């Protein structure tokens, strides 16, 4: 695992939901003058996605070099084919990540964009309408999907650019020497004055250099927490180390608040609830968000350390898929994100230990069974790394 590479003097703008994120992304594409790289898990076939698609094509027609990576599973085979054809006609270069599972089960779950090597976007938002469910049901949502992105300018952009251009190269024809050269470049660390504002780092997860980088970032933050830890995530099924870190922080007197998305996948909800008894016993506060689809993968510790990105707290994100988060050590940014999480908690339902103990036996049995099924599947996929 490479060390986390922090840079200072970045300019970071927190973007909440698609209403803030997509206009910024579209504007950046329309102002591009040389190149755009975009990588996403889902590039949907809806009105929002068409807006971004047309912005990319407009850029290409201005002779901007435009490169788009979409995940074959996340975007779907048929949609990927249609998207590729439209991009080809519009002058945009497109590559699918791991079609037909030719490189195993790993997916690119990252959501990143770099424009002119000067501006970057990173977070949890796919290229899809945030009023439509992102599963196969395509059901309308009662409120915009709860999610976050970050608009970034400054030294950190070069690190994001290196990651996304290397991903593009990997998906093409790249000889062994070129691959090794790119890997060596990505190992380079860069640390600036920690007292400067917007001290931030890109942390990624892959199956080559950074198998546990994102998880260790969370473990380090929780291990050094003194007062508060606010965490929000839609798919809660972390390994034992992450669960234990939450419990130990709460035992030390840290006010640990866990905001979880529920209601999208029944088996996922059951797996998450199988962990509730231990977490509640150790003092972790758990809230279930049911207002709309919670998709944000964010956390704030001690109002100083924060993270926004694509990584869920589940076995796929922590042990299988390719992910990308930004980690920020900046009080103003942390407070802004904390306030959003706090508002989410206010709209959520708290799970109390006494009430949860009164859950009917058949439901508790289902929760345990769901976890055993999930753990067995992940142990096979991760070759025993998930516990």
Automatic annotation (TrEMBL):
Please state every residue range assigned to the domain named PLD phosphodiesterase: 104-131, 290-317
What Pfam families has UniProt attached to this entry?
A: PLDc_2
**PROSITE patterns (UniProt xref):** PLD
What SMART domains has UniProt attached to this entry?
Answer: PLDc
- Put simply, this protein is called Cardiolipin synthase
Q: What is the originating organism of this protein?
A: Noviherbaspirillum suwonense
């Amino acid at each position: 695992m490479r060390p986390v590479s922090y840079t200072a003097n970045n300019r970071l703008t927190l973007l909440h939901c698609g209403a803030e994120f997509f206009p910024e992304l579209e504007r950046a594409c329309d102002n591009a003058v040389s190149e755009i790289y975009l990588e996403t898990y889902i590039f949907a076939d809806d009105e929002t996605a068409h807006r971004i698609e047309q912005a990319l094509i407009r850029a290409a027609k201005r002779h901007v070099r435009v490169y788009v990576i979409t995940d074959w599973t996340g975007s779907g085979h048929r949609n990927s084919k249609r998207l590729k054809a439209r991009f080809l006609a519009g002058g945009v270069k497109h590559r699918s990540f791991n079609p037909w599972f030719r490189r195993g089960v790993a997916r690119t779950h990252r959501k990143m964009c770099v424009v002119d090597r000067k501006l970057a976007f990173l977070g949890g938002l796919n290229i899809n309408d945030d009023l439509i469910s992102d599963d196969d049901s395509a059901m309308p949502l009662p409120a915009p999907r709860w999610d976050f992105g970050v608009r970034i300018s400054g030294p950190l952009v070069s690190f994001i650019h290196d990651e996304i251009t290397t991903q593009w190269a990997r998906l093409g024809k790249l000889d062994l020497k070129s691959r090794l050269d790119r890997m060596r470049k990505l190992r380079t660390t860069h640390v600036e004055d920690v007292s400067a504002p917007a001290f931030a780092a890109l942390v990624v997860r892959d199956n080559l250099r950074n198998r546990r980088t994102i998880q260790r970032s969370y473990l380090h933050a929780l291990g050094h927490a003194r007062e508060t830890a606010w965490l929000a995530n839609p798919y809660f099924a972390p390994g034992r180390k992450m669960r234990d870190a939450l419990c130990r922080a709460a035992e030390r007197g840290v006010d640990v608040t866990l905001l979880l998305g529920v209601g999208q996948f029944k088996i996922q909800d059951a797996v998450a609830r199988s962990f509730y008894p231990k977490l509640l016993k150790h003092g972790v506060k758990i809230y279930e968000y049911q207002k709309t689809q919670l998709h944000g993968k964010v956390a704030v510790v001690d109002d100083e350390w924060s993270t926004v990105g694509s990584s869920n707290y589940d076995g796929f994100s922590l042990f299988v898929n390719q992910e990308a988060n930004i980690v920020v050590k900046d009080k103003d940014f942390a407070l802004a994100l904390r306030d959003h999480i706090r508002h989410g908690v206010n709209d959520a339902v708290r799970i109390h230990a006494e009430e949860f103990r009164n859950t009917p036996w058949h439901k508790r049995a289902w929760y345990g069974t769901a976890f055993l099924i999930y753990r067995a599947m992940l142990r096979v996929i991760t070759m025993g790394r998930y516990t």
